[in-house]
Write a structure and sequence with these properties.
The chain is an all-alpha fold. The chain is built from three helices and no strands.
């Protein structure tokens, strides 16, 4: 039983790490694709700010949206 708990904990930790890495990669790809051709510095900064949301903030915002949908 103890082994199963350790294995399950390890799998969950790896999955969470993989999700975070995936999110960060998608943020970087989106930033590069959508902001690279903007010439105006102010517009470029605004564009890049959209991709600065860290994974924990993203998860909280996502959960807030899901909770709001459940209430309706």
């Amino acid at each position: 039983m103890k082994i199963k708990i350790i294995v399950l904990s390890s799998v969950l930790a790896l999955a969470a790490c993989s999700q975070k890495n995936w999110y960060q990669g998608m943020q970087e790809a989106g930033r590069q694709q959508n902001c690279r051709d903007i010439v105006n510095e102010l517009d470029k900064e605004k564009c890049e700010e959209q991709y600065q949301v860290d994974y924990e903030t993203y998860q909280k915002q996502r959960q807030d949206v899901l909770n709001a949908q459940d209430k309706n």
